[in-house]
Protein: (2Fe-2S)-binding protein
Amino acid sequence: MLSHAEVLSALLRRRPGYSLPRAFYVDPGVYAADLEQIFFKDWIFACASAELPKSGAYITLEIGEAPVIVVRGADGQIRAFHNSCRHRGSRICSAAKGSAPKLVCPYHQWTYELDGRLLYARDMGADFDPSAFPLKPVHCRSAAGLVFISLAEVAPPFDAFAHMAARYVGPHGLENTKVAHQSTIVEKANWKLVLENNRECYHCSGSHPSLCRTFPDNPRLVGSSASDSAPEGRMHIEKCEAAGLPSAYVIDPAEQWRFVRIPFLGKAVSYTMDGKAAVSKRIGKIPMEDAGTCLFFHYPNTWNHFLADQALLFRVLPISPMETQVTTTWLVHQDAREGEDYDLNRLTEVWLHTNDEDRRIVEENQRGILSPAYEPGPYSELQESGVVQFVDWYAQSLQRGLTGGTRLAV
Ligand code: 3BY
Ligand code: FES
Ligand code: FE
Structure:
């Protein structure tokens, strides 16, 4: 297990433009540094606000070993708390999601309001002051219906991102959607292999027959940068912007997040086997069926697709150095009726296949990296510039964290 100093030294010695040395994908010391410097500090995508439709609706997630509960209060506000009772520390909610009028600890029934205040604790004596034992809050912000949390003492800035999310995602009206389906899988691979795989389509033609019916695997379209985009991408952006939909490639100055709207192949309008819409009711205020897909990532743990008829949200959470949980959520208009406005199988089949294909790919990637023969290999400049961008962001973030805040050039 590498020490922090050894992780830093390995970072400084890495070869840019090449995959990372083995330790970054397998070592518990690197994993601990990833959690401490990235997952415990940054904004982490938790859920859609549509997953918490009413007061008392909650979801739980674990960031490393930190269990968190995200819950909608009686006042409609979404808040996040450490999912650890102020009595003797028991987890309060164990289900992945649910609904409860109060948060009741299963151990000795200490009972909390949805805003975290301790309401009731039996037989604690006359001088017991419940107000001294509220649930510990976790920073929680929503942007265009996407809920992010941060375990940092002082949360990083959020406003610039929220502003851009309002422009690009706002028109998709996520607040007026509902969950049509959610799938959670565990991939036996380091979380960075899951992200790296997502940031390229070099593998798409060889692995994703269903996705490739509608999704262009042209690297100049997939939105790695603004400058070298393909003509059909530029035309699509012009058409959508003229219709009032922000679509041009935009990336955070720190390169943590990016938005861009790209077209589907040919006449396709959605991720279905025949390319036709999966849901007859469009979401939000999308003015046309062929708006393509708005691609959004926010490191370290989410990428998303916003279409005219659905939104697809992906949440990545590390479980251990070589295990990662991936949750996919399909959102459709809240008034869309299953069986009438959409068929669940048609809506989900392409990405259920694609996720399983990606799981196999990254698991094989992990197995091969465990080989004593593994050494970092070169990324394709044309096909894998998105991977280079992610790995550089990761290296800078980790380096900054390990050196106490100084951002060093990669
Ligand atoms: O999931 C993504 O965002 C991209 C598009 C399809 C596969 N992957 C490269
Ligand atoms: Fe929660 Fe005792 S640990 S009530
Ligand atoms: Fe893939």
